[in-house]
Amino acid sequence: MEPQELGFTPQRPVGWLAPLLLLSTGLRALLATLFGAYLDKRELQNALDGGWFDHSQTEDGELWLDYVADLGDGFDATYSVAYLLAQAGLEVDGVSLPRGRLLLMGGDQVYPLASGDGYESRMKGPYRAALPEPPLSGPQPTLFALPGNHDWYDGLTAFIRLFARRKDGHIGGWRTEQRRSYFAVKLPANWWLFAIDEQFGAYIDDPQLQYFEQAARHVGPQDRIILMTPSPKWVKSVDNPEEYDAIDYFIRKILDPRGATTRVLVSGDLHHYARYSDTERELITCGGGGAYLVGTQQLPDELIVPQPDTLTRNRSVSRPYAFRKSYPDAEKSRRLGWGVFGRVPTRNPGFVTMLGIIHVLTMLAMAGAAADNSGLVARVFYIPLTVMLVLIIAGSVAFAQPPKADEAKHARHWIAGLLHAAAHIGLAAGGTWLWLSLPFHDWTWPGPLVVAAVGYGPVIGFVATQVTALYLLIASYADVNVNELFAGQGIEDHKSFLRMHIARDGSLTIHPIAVDKISRKWKPDPDGPADSPWLQPRDPLTPRHIEPPIQVR
């Protein structure tokens, strides 16, 4: 089907190492961090409807819920997951799992930057194509969405317009009910769902706390809570103990005083599946809705939550949570990491071009400095060479993303960045030696520049990309640039989502679903029923359990 028929243009996966994207995303993140507190739309949402939502009454006393996060990337991966979520039921390892009455989106509904067009082409369009109309039989499912950091890059403007519409709110066959970026939902059998919006890990604002205080008045000691968060701070607090403080505060101040028990914490943001648990609580990360895969090899075998090193005096009692399962597992993740040498140059041609330009300029500066160390030549080339060396060092260190000086693992990021810079400078020196051993450098100007740009540039760009790929692979073993190792590869397979079931007896069963291989070929189905997907997969989509269903009582 053509874009005119679909109503949107299917998008290719984001090339995360594209130079302009790196620059624009970095600037957006910086501006959001610097000025987000001044443009915090959560404060303004106090003027919007503030009621909680009741989905506790069903005909059979049961409820199915779906959870998906990190979904608005390339069409094939996003639509593969949307297609499965839209089906009336799935057969997973011989078990029939009906479609969720509620679809919960856990954050980052669009990449790389939030905008109306971005949501339309990368999220709303694919989900509308998967379920164009409400189901012809059975109730209409409802969609709730929690914003992630990418949803916040425009100050939450497009998110509110899409998910918090006052009239006729729907995305395809899913209706939308929420009026704010956070929500509380009463579920059957004494279960509640609370979804908090932290806005880049900041404090929980007063209007939001007041909203949840009002909702929590209806919560009693017999109730159990599913808590949705934008990011798995229980994992991130290993490096920064204060990361979990806002979640801990919410549980201590809003939920615990009601006598309710918080049984499940669920989040996306990290693009894989991982579960930690103790006898009373499940900590689940499930960010496999469509974005590039992130490996799991760096996950610890045990988490202490909250971290004892947090400065918060009144924190909850620290408890150990054992690692249970990840998808993909650590061994598979390490094997996937080795694909960096082939995938980075093919998925990010602009990155190859950028490195080629940098190395051509550095080589010409080095060659000019080596040819004559005095007079005009020195004045012309010494300054550019210095500039290029500073650019390489600064860029390599920034790429390693060193945390603040008072945070853990600060030194290793600086060391990794400097070693990465040294590798590129060494490569530039070797390229200069090779250049000077060839006759091109003696040609009449601009002959050397033309040969360097046309012949030397593409070759050195590819070699420099391989140097960066090797750096990413080695640095990942020191837990540095793990995200970039996988973002640069843009692996679309190995997707995941959750299908949850609340039974009449009050038990919650969580089915973690894996999609090992997405579909990349689609065929239109113009004669199907009104609620059937517009596009059917030519490649089979075979969901399976990541681990046995998780029982929570």
From TrEMBL:
Region entry Disordered, spans: 520-553
Keywords: Membrane, Transmembrane, Transmembrane helix
Keyword hit for Membrane: yes
Domain of life: Bacteria
Gene3D superfamilies hit by this protein: 3.60.21.10
Membrane-traversing stretches: 16-39, 351-369, 381-402, 414-436, 448-474
Protein name, per record: Calcineurin-like phosphoesterase family protein
